[in-house]
Amino acid sequence: MTALPALLNPILTLLGLGLGIGSVLGFIAKRFQLESDPIVNRINNLLPQTQCGHCGYPGCKPYAQAIAEGEAINKCPPGGAGTIRKLANLLNLEELPLDATHGVEEVPKVARIREAECIGCALCIPACPVDAILGAPKFMHTVIESECTGCDLCVEPCPVDCIDMVELHTQAIAAKQQDHLPCINCGLCIDECPVEILPHTLYRACDDENLELAESLKLQYCIECRKCDNVCPSGIPLVGYYQAAKEKLQLETMEKIKANNAKKRFECHLERQERVKVEEEVLREKRAKLAQQNKSKTSNQNIQAALERVRARKNEKPSP
Amino acid sequence: MTDIFLILVGAILVNNFVLTQFLGLCPFMGVSGKVETAVGMSAATIFVLTLASACSYIVYHYLLLPLGLEYLRTISFIVVIAAVVSATEMIMQFTSPFLYRILGIFLPLITSNCAVLGVALLNINQSHTFIESVFYGLGAAVGFSLVLVLFSAMREKLDQCDIPEPFQGPAIAMITAGLMSLTFMGFTGMVQ
Predict the structure, then answer these.
(1) Contact A34 B94 (CB under 8 A)
(2) Which pTM was predicted?
(3) The domain A39-102 is classified under which CATH number: 1.10.10.60, 1.10.15.40, 3.50.50.60, 3.40.640.10?
(4) Given an 8 Å threshold on Cβ–Cβ distance, is A17 in contact with B91?
């Protein structure tokens, strides 16, 4: 019993300390609140934004939503292994091979309309998730190639099969160079390099296709003077490796820009569909109301008048 | 003035927290793989350690001492340090997302850096005043940063070297750390 008051003091002190600190932290958390990027958006940013629906969802955002709720990450054929790896990294999941039931990874394609055969039916226009088809009923259509994501959703509705999926002309990445001896870390290239990057380290990063590392090792600083090539005792064509890596980086950046565009266009497409739906609904209601009014007011009179007219004509006919 | 200078030099070089007192070894080995991360960790540590030693001084002298609860100092310092770290993290995320991204995971990791608690406890042991405590914390953090950056630079170089297989990885890192510790022994006795 005597121990209790002695214990009470420290307990109360610690409690007070905890409460004080807790309330200060709570205040700070409230004051400096930051809306964090929800996980769905982060997943969506990793998806290729083709909006093709191969995964079984109507677009990339719905699939991202589904992944956040536990859907498998290997259902995106346009993204392929790269996207699966990024998703696995983000969500701390195991990397899975692509689920072949949803399609196989292919080179990027775009749709092209054989314009001579197009009959102007306009069926492909609503099928395009990113509004990349231009045209009007009874006029020839065309695909805006830079906006096309290659989802092939427009191929199916075309009644005359005049839409082809053609391969996007991307620069072929320079093939691996001829055989050479391994890097021996002699450091000769370091002394040669006029822009003071570490050619041998950079070479290794490029060889492993670790583009992030290569960029942090100042890949873009290389002026491709080939001085390092000339001194390398192993005869490694270093600059060839750098060029391949640079090309790959550029391609990736362009794809990212395109994906971003497609995402925006898809969002606009959805928004427009929603708006049209609402507008049509309003219009239909208006018309129905008008019809109702007319009906209740004059429908009987109208019918009577029509009957009168018919009768009058009938009476007129036999007379001549 | 000379007192503060002596405290700084003493904490940075003579009684270096990592190499002489062997505190904060976990981040010393853990985040010294690259110079960039080491610099990030150093910046975060300097900030938090200075702030935490000031806060723990206030808590000890204005809360625990008057109530006669000196024996609660360890647990209350842990609470204070954790609070300082998470408050710093929240404020930084709001005010400077750039800095937040650089420091990233290192900021919460400092909570478990025993050098921070060590500084708070040593401040009391050596009966420092408030100003002295702050500079002792600053000195400790600068010393920590100094050896961390030096060590990571060395490890980056080591990665490029042809090291015999049994010594690769942590083994050579440990040997390097030991040699660094030996060199810092040379400062012993410079400042009491």
Answers:
(1) yes
(2) 0.53
(3) 1.10.15.40
(4) no
